[in-house]
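User: Is it possible to get a 3D structure for a protein together with its bound compound? The compound here is hypoxanthine. I've pasted both below.
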Amino acid sequence: MSSSKFTNAGLTVEDLGIERYGNGHGSTENGNGYRPPSKLNGSTNSKAHHDSSNGHHRHQQDDTPLALRGNVVNPYTYEVLSESAQYIMDRISIRPKIAIICGSGLGSLATILDEKIDFPYEQIPHFPQSTVPGHAGKLVVGKMGKVPVVCMQGRFHYYEGYPLWKCAMPVRVFKLLGVEMLIVTNAAGGLNPDYKVGDIMILKDHVNFPGFAGESFLRGPNDERFGSRFVALNSAYDLDLRKLAKSVSSELGMNDFVHEGIYTMVGGPNFETVAELRLMKLLGIDAVGMSTVPEVIAARHCGIKCFGFSLITNECVTCYDTDDEPDHAEVMEAAFRRQDDLVRFVTSFIDSVKSAELISK
Ligand code: HPA
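Assistant: Yes, that's possible. Here is the predicted structure of the complex:
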C-alpha cells in the first residue's frame, strides 16, 4: 500500500514530478518509459514550494528530465486503483460481473438491487466526488436478479472540471473488481427528428468531439496491465448486446420508443448552438450529451464489453426563430417520468444477458 493516503488524485505532473527509473535508459517497472510516482503527495523529487509572502507556487528544483517535463501523466496508476478496488472487495462477498453507470436522473436503476451495499464516493480511496444535482455520488453493489452488479450512482463529467482520466477511472476500478460488461446510460438531447422526449436510444456508435481536439485520457504513458497502446473502437458497442437489447425491448412492447443511433459527447456545460447542432445532424448524429465516451473508451481499452443507451430528455433546438431553450430541470423531469420503463428494460436485459451466457457463469 502506498503511504500517500488518498490525497494525490488531483495532481498534475507539475505537482508530482516524473522519475526516470534506474538505469537512465528508460527501462521501468511498467515498461513504458516512466515510473509512476511512488509517493504521490510529498517527498518525491518535485519540490513545489508555496511562498506565502506573495501567494505564488515556485518550483525550486525539479529532477524530471527536461525531455519529459510537462508531459501528461495519469496519476491513477494500476497500484493506486488497486487500492480503490481492494477497499471495495474487502467489504463485499459477491464479485460484480456487470457495472452500470447511471446517467442524470437515472439513479433509480441502483435502488432496485437486492443485498445492496453502498459505498459513498468519499469513503472509497482515491475516488473523485460528484458535484451535479441528480447524481447521488455512491457505488452500490448488489444483485439484479441473479447477476452480481455494481452501479455508479453519479458519474464524473468533464464539465465539472475533472480531467478525462478522472471521468474514466471508475471503469478501471470495475475491471479490477472482475467486471466483464459495462452498461452506460446517459441523458441526451435528441437531434434525430423522429425522437421524442422520453424515448430511449441504444448506442450503436459515438462521435468523440473532445477526441478530435486531442483530448483522450489514454494520452500519456500506457500501462499494458490495463490494455494496449492503441485501442480499436470500430465495434465499441457490442453487437450481440445490441441485438439482445432490441429483442428485449420488443418483448416488453417498447418498440414505439426504443431506437438505435449515434451518440456524441460534447464538453459542456453549455448546451449547443444552433449551428453546432446543425453540424452534428450533417454528421449523422442522433443524440448529444456530455458524458459516456471516456468511460466507454476506458472499458474497451481494458477489454470490458459495452452496451449503452441514452434517455432523450429534450429535443435539440435546431432553428433560430423560437424561444425554446433546454434546461437541466427539463432533463431531470423527463428522466423521472421514464424511470419505471427503464428499470423494466434494464432488469429484463440483464436477465437475458445471463441466459444467453454473454457473461461468464
Ligand atoms: N445537449 C447536451 N447534453 C445534454 C442535452 C443536450 O441537449 N440534454 C441532456 N444532456
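The domain at 78-355 is CATH 3.40.50.1580 (Rossmann fold). Confidence is low (pLDDT under 50) at residues 1-55.
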